[in-house]
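User: I'm putting together a teaching handout on how sequence relates to shape, and I'd like one worked example. Could you take Type-5 uracil-DNA glycosylase from Rhodococcus rhodnii LMG 5362, show the sequence you're using, and then write out its predicted structure as tokens right after it?

Assistant: Happy to. First the sequence, then the structure tokens directly below it.
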Amino acid sequence: MGDAAVTGPRDALSALDAELIECRACPRLVAWREEVGRVKRAAFRDETYWARPVPGFGPHDARLAVVGLAPAAHGANRTGRMFTGDRSGDVLYASMYRVGLANQPTATSLDDGLALLGTRVTSPVHCAPPDNKPTPAERDTCRHWLASELDLLAPTLRAVVVLGGFGWQALMPVLTAAGWIVPRPRPRFGHGVEVVLQPDEREPDAGPRAPLHVFGCYHVSQQNTFTGRLTPDMLDDVLRRAALVSDLPA
């Protein structure tokens, strides 16, 4: 991040993303993501898999962040973009379109024309894990990427929607590292929960920050959406509330 060519928030976030996609810090995740890219799923056998860490997706001045869990093996690990090319992404981006946070309801590939409006989508773990379950050590090793990303977004960031309990637990120490005060005991995850975190003014190097509204939402996994635990209306409601406190049109 000390590159003299980095001149502003957009360049800084692009530089962070470029550094992230070269990461090989977790041997198990590196081996898995690359094996999936070689073996492939039959439906995608003619495609070239991304098979690298997947960076966040969205504008450098986002007012809202959506935080998931990790890339899906045949979704983002294939396409190279968060929640793109799988059914979880189909649910998420359709909802974001309905509430005015995306320009289209579908996400299939890097060149499909999707643009997010005032919103960035990211995750606490950037490589696809076996069985969609990163280890605590892998989560902690990956933590600094999300902390750096949120630090760069901090001047404009007003809200975060966290998809699922794993993401919620992973995010809380990240928010502390990124300059907000997380109370003790830490807030508990629940669908529709809203917590407002104050900026940590004891950190003089943190830069400008506003209070941050953190919303819990059930993950957009098939396990939740197919069973009705998470309905489109439930997802729309959380995203709409987050957009409202972020001063985004929704």
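A couple of points you could highlight for students: The first helix runs from residue 9 to 20. The radius of gyration is 17 Å.
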